[in-house]
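My main concern about presentation is that the manuscript never shows what a single data entry looks like. In essence, backbone conformation is discretised, so a fold becomes a row of integers matching the chain in length. An entry of this sort, consisting of the sequence and the corresponding backbone structure tokens, reads as follows:
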Amino acid sequence: MTEFAHRISRGIFRLLLPLLAVGQASAELSMVDRSIPVDPDGAVADAGWALGRLNKGDSMTNASFVYPETTTPVRLYLIDTGVAPIASWSEANPNLKSFRSHLVRATGDPATSSVVAHGTQMLSLIVGPETGAAVGTPVHVVNYNIYPGTTASTTLGRLQDAIFEVLEDHEANPGLPSVLCIANSSSYQASSAFLESLIDDAVEAGITVVVSAGNEKASAASYIPAAYGSKDGVICVGASGTDNLPWVGAGGSGSNTGAAVDLYAPGQNVRTLNPADPRPGNFSSSNGTSPASALTAAAALIQLSLNPSFTPAQVEEALTATAYAPVAARGASATALVQVQPGPEADSDQDGSSDVLEKFFGSDPANPAVKPAPVLLSRVSGQARLSFNVAADLFNPADPHVLADGSTWKVRISDDLKEWSDAVGILAPGQTNGDQIPVTFSVPEAGPRVFLKIEVTPPPVQ
């Protein structure tokens, strides 16, 4: 049996069409095609309130999470504690492409550290299975462990040393859009010209910087590195509670607020993997601006994977533009919540097919009785063939993969649904039939199984 599967990637600027087709062939061609609607691959039905709020900022009950499946690899620099052995849960997320860890130590520091809880939880909120917002994005992780010994205490000097090492690594390993997540800060009001200059250098190098606002229930502008959230490309993140208001904790703690805070994200009883045993299904929780900044770093990684040419300022602008802002004016209590959008949301006729999908295939986004024709998959003379329609007013024969509205599309291929590459094949448009052009795309079969997906990417946000 030869199996074919067809999907369209889902992302903030991508489109998902969940179709499955199975072709069977004997020595002489005989074929059965089936197009079966299925649920999005990037869905966690019981994701907890925090991830649910990232999808629907206005819903106090949503606990499901649909994440975008993106394709461009990105890099996460995580300055934190160490991370517990990650084999069990990195295997559960094939998009965690690599992991490196470096110790950052001052003179006289021990060479090892047993402090791993915080870093493990933060990483799980970014790429962990069932708890990570960027679980559908290929991420390379570099962890800088700045907490020596056995206590969760470090110094500004070690943080500065770690940022310097990030800059060196980024220069030595170019090519991957990068996010630096600093989910820790000083609890003393302070300023540091050297730290500020290092953060400026990171932004200038093209690294998007995400910092936590701090948990002193005061003005973030008085604490470092939160104070530098006023800079373009430095995203200072406050914590929101289940009520969408700034989080208030026990003992006088609570999210810092004020003009330095750019965005908010869930920071109350946020579900993470259990740092003592980080594996799928084994959970713990975290409070404060640390989990909020980790979730925001995940959203920034998704944006960079979708738009790898974005500058740090453009990443910040995109996250701000898509944030959920409460309708009621709340003055100093206002929160703009980070959102992770699973894909184009507009569905004018509410028929289950997004407007972008219907426009690409030449369907009618205003008529619920008219849906895109199924994509057909077949095996013909040793080739896997996709047959589908493209809107005649979008298709450009001179450059067929660039549509008239600036969108682009391509076919990608895999033999295991994990590793994907651009498919090299033959594109053959047919004669225009009304508002549509029939198209076939054929690729040679290289093994007993082949999976094909079409990716449609609208133009980047200007």
Remarks:
- Residues 1-41, 327-332 have pLDDT under 50 and may be disordered.
- The chain has two domains: 2-40+345-457, 43-333.
- The domain at 2-40+345-457 is CATH 2.60.40.10 (Immunoglobulin-like).
- Helices lie at 48-55, 87-92, 117-127, 156-172, 193-204, 289-306, 312-321, 355-360.
